[in-house]
From TrEMBL:
<feature type="signal peptide">
    <location>
        <begin position="1"/>
        <end position="21"/>
    </location>
</feature>
<keyword id="KW-0732">Signal</keyword>
<dbReference type="Pfam" id="PF13462">
    <property type="entry name" value="Thioredoxin_4"/>
</dbReference>
<dbReference type="InterPro" id="IPR036249">
    <property type="entry name" value="Thioredoxin-like_sf"/>
</dbReference>
<protein>
    <submittedName>
        <fullName>Thioredoxin domain-containing protein</fullName>
    </submittedName>
</protein>
<feature type="domain" description="Thioredoxin-like fold">
    <location>
        <begin position="55"/>
        <end position="242"/>
    </location>
</feature>
<dbReference type="InterPro" id="IPR012336">
    <property type="entry name" value="Thioredoxin-like_fold"/>
</dbReference>
């Protein structure tokens, strides 16, 4: 059974919220010399450069950066929210803005709410919006998940509806339609995105495939230049970025 089918058939919120953290590696990135800042072309800012990667992630920064940071995260993972609150601005304004580091955010889907948010954050078809929208979700995570924590049957009942109604109903019951509408994605556009069962299946199944292939056992899991460093605190991750040459 695929991850998508498990999400549709079962209520996974409790497991998703509890299963954020994964394995941690003790192997640090080897120490390299500091890499000089790389100016953006035409006097621009690397933070304004965004793209969807072949892996389905959303990347900001210099696409040819010598240090490539990838984070696998869940939108319903409190540890991911805590990490972003502590480190998100530093990663962007110190490391990505220098042109030395690119940052890519990929999904590890934990539950139906997570999948709903992952689809809505893509709904505007603007690669530059995905990371800011994800950050705003994490900033409001307690409010977003509260209805299901108070009434676990809410998600289970939504998943029993006909296919094209399940995720629109869940989004409306959680207030996500209003949340994303306030951030520039029209309600009717959101409901159309969430009615597209094929796109939801693609996100969930890609998450499962990459997690299996790359040994992503929890979130947030970090990669630097393709090396899986596991789940790290910010101080540990920053040390590895600096070892890789980002100063």
């Amino acid at each position: 059974m695929t991850m998508f089918r498990r999400i549709v058939l079962t209520a996974l919120l409790a497991a998703g919220l509890a299963a954020c953290s994964g394995d941690k590696t003790d192997d640090a990135v080897a120490v390299s010399e500091a890499i000089a800042a790389i100016p953006a072309p035409n006097g621009g800012n690397w933070l304004d450069v965004a793209a969807v990667t072949p892996e389905g992630g959303h990347q900001i920064g210099n696409p040819d950066a010598p240090v490539k940071l990838v984070e696998y995260a869940s939108h319903t993972c409190p540890h991911c929210a805590e990490f972003d609150a502590e480190a998100g601005e530093t990663i962007k304004n110190k490391y990505v803005a220098s042109g030395v580091v690119s940052y890519e955010l990929r999904n590890q889907i934990h539950d139906a709410i997570d999948l709903t948010i992952a689809r809505l954050a893509r709904c505007g078809n603007d690669p530059s919006a995905y990371i800011p929208l994800s950050e705003q979700v994490w900033q409001n995570l307690a409010q977003i998940v509260a209805p299901v924590q108070q009434n676990p049957a809410l998600m289970e009942n939504a998943m029993k509806l006909p296919e094209n109604q399940r995720f629109p109903a869940l989004a409306q019951q959680l207030g996500l339609v209003d949340f994303f509408a306030a951030r520039g994605i029209a309600a009717n556009q959101q409901l159309q995105c969430l009615s597209d069962f094929a796109s939801l299946t693609e996100i969930a199944d890609r998450s499962e495939k990459q997690s299996d292939e790359l040994n992503v056992t929890g979130t947030p899991t970090f990669f630097i230049n393709g090396r899986n460093l596991g789940t790290l605190r910010w101080a540990e991750l920053e040390a590895n970025l600096q070892n890789a040459g980002a100063r």
